[in-house]
Amino acid sequence: MLLPRINHRLLLLRHLSSPPPFLSSPSSSPSRFLSSSKPPSPASNLRSGVMTGPMGVQPPKLVFRQLFEKESSTYTYLLADVAHPDKPALLIDPVDRTVDRDLSLVKDLGLKLIYAMNTHVHADHITGTGLIKDMVPGVKSVISKASHSKADLLIEAGDKICLGSLFLEVRATPGHTLGCVTYVTGDGLDQPYPRMAFTGDTLLIRGCGRTDFQGGSSSQLYQSVHSQIFTLPKDTLVYPAHDYKGFTVSTVGEEMLYNPRLTKDEETFKSIMENLNLPYPKMIDVAVPANMVCGLQDRAAKA
Ligand SMILES: N[C@@H](CCC(=O)N[C@@H](CSS)C(=O)NCC(=O)O)C(=O)O
Questions:
Q1: What GO molecular functions are on record for this protein (predicted)?
Q2: Atom 5 of ligand 1 has which residue's CA nearest to it?
Q3: Binning pLDDT at 50, 70 and 90, where does residue 58 land?
Q4: Cβ neighbours of residue 175 under 8 Å, at least 6 residues apart?
Q5: Where does the pLDDT of residue 50 fall: very low under 50, low under 70, confident under 90, or very high at 90 and above?
């Protein structure tokens, strides 16, 4: 069967100097969100996992699912633009063990998976991006250039990853690892509201990623969170790559108030991080080399 060809140069807009047409219209200025006489209510934005725009009058566009892998307590996220004829979709931080489940959901929802993305080189599980590439022809694996890993698309801060008419901004948030990034949904009237930040292991709910291996640095993580995440609107939803306590989602405002590590000054934060005394992840020696090639461990060994 012939699959439609997708021009990935059009989908990945590097260091966009001027906003795309839909953002340049005066009606899409962020101040319109504030000046709306009818403020958005949660009910108007979230219906059965489908988000609409801030006024609740736009056709639903984003299909969003949070999926859990219980052995590593990892969250995988599925996003799709269902208003686009192709229904393009992407997965953030898929896990090898749950690829079948994730792909079957993609199929059930009639989506066309185009990207399998990582927020960073994981140390506790093997990414599903390699398996997904094998199972779904045409899917591109994505990871940051700063991770020094192999993938089809090596992204950098400022890149925009387009998904139909939705897009994700890339923010560099090193600290847990050198190459950690946070993907943030776009800013604009036709983008999901509130914005959503996929923080990987940089910012966890009431916690943060450890900084004691893989080029980690507590001072870098502190700066990353404060400059790249805590500067987002306070109602931005925070979706981490892990949760060990049963939380599913937080907001920037909530973490700015209640995160027990990141509400402290930098020196106190560093001391907290130096004294975590966490055992190394059980799979670190297998997971890191595999994830440096986006999980294509068998192929890399054979090559
Ligand atoms: N026990 C797990 C690993 C737990 C762990 O170290 N989690 C990491 C993220 S995965 S590398 C982390 O940063 N934790 C921060 C924290 O405060 O818990 C295993 O053996 O896999």
A1: metal ion binding; sulfur dioxygenase activity
A2: 281
A3: low
A4: 202, 208, 209, 211, 216, 217, 218, 219, 220, 221, 222, 223, 224, 225
A5: very low
Given a cut of 80, whether residue 27 has pLDDT beyond it is: no
Residue 12 lies in a domain: no
In a domain, 150, yes or no: yes
- The verdict on residue 132 lying in a domain is yes
- Is there a domain that residue 300 lies in? no
What's the domain count of the chain?
1
Ligand 1 centre to CA of 112 (Å) is 32
* Residue of minimum CA distance from atom 3 in ligand 1: 281
Q: What is the pLDDT of residues 136-188, one digit of tens each?
A: 999 999 999 999 999 999 999 999 999 999 999 999 999 999 999 999 999 99
What DSSP state is assigned to residue 242?
B
Determine the distance separating the centroid of ligand 1 and the alpha carbon of 209, expressed in angstroms: 7
Q: Which amino acid residue places its CA nearest to atom 1 of ligand 1?
A: 281
Q: Which domain holds residue 251?
A: 43-279
Q: Whose CA is nearest to atom 10 of ligand 1?
A: 124
CATH of residue 270's domain is: 3.60.15.10
Q: Please, what is the average pLDDT of the chain?
A: 85
Residue 271 alpha carbon to ligand 1 centre in Å: 18
Q: Which two tokens stand for residue 270?
A: 């560093």
Q: In Å, what is the CA distance from 176 to each residue of 172, 214, 216, 220?
A: 12, 8, 5, 8
Distance CA 64, CA 85 (A): 17
With a Cβ cut-off of 6 Å, ligand 1 is lined by 72, 123-124, 201, 207, 209-210, 242, 244, 276, 278, 281-283
